Amino acid sequence: MRTHEIVLARIEADLAAGRWGLGERLPAERSLAEELGVSRPSVREALRVLEAMGIVRTAVGSGPDAGATVIDRPAAGLGAAVRLHVASGTLVVRDVVETRVLLETWAVGQAAATAGGAGLSEAVALLDTMDDPSLDPARFRELDAAFHVALVRLAANVLVEAVMTGLRGAIESYVEAGTERLEDWPRTAVRLRAEHRAVLDAVARGDGAGAADAVREHIEGFYREAGL
After folding, report:
1. Distances (CA, A) of 85 to 53, 117, 186
2. What pTM does this model have?
3. Domain spanning 75-225: which CATH class is it, in words?
4. H/E run at residue 7
5. pLDDT tens digit string along 64-98?
6. Alpha carbon of 70 to those of 79, 109, 212: distances in Å?
7. CATH top-level class of 3-70
8. What keywords are annotated for this sequence in UniProt (predicted)?
9. Does residue 118 surpass a pLDDT of 60?
């Protein structure tokens, strides 16, 4: 085990034991190094890894905000990892699409069963903004991604939401590539708007099966149309 991994293992154990909670600062680098019997560069490397994973936020200096503070951004590390693996070719687009279908069909079914028409205001507002026919494709894709994350959020499962948020960069990447392949983007945009409304309407009615079918066809339909 490399030295910085020893630091990571110790910090993980201390977090699990409740030594530090959200919003609390970890000991200074020097204190951690002395406590664990390792070098300060090893502590610094471990903190960089934790920051990339969305576990801590670091700030330089000597003020009250300096050092590493425990936060909770599980999607940060997931998003970076997924984007890099897609870029390297390790994760193919089809795998991302299938994972997205699994997550979103479950989420809308759960949301329909538990929330019904409640808590839909964020998703409705996003769709209302997307109805503007003058939106350029880039802005449309940005709102589209936010809408799908909002849908998953309705299921009230923090881990599923984090995974979906982590996939967001990879999803936006393949959707952008697909958009460039389309012969008639305005026509596709009209269809996507209608499909979004159909999914949300099914959730609002409490029709979990209908919402799941609609979101599956919506995701896979674009994948097929764009020839991805």
Report:
1. 15, 37, 32
2. 0.74
3. mainly alpha
4. helix 3-16
5. 556 788 876 666 667 677 767 767 777 788 888 99
6. 19, 34, 37
7. mainly alpha
8. DNA-binding, Transcription, Transcription regulation
9. no
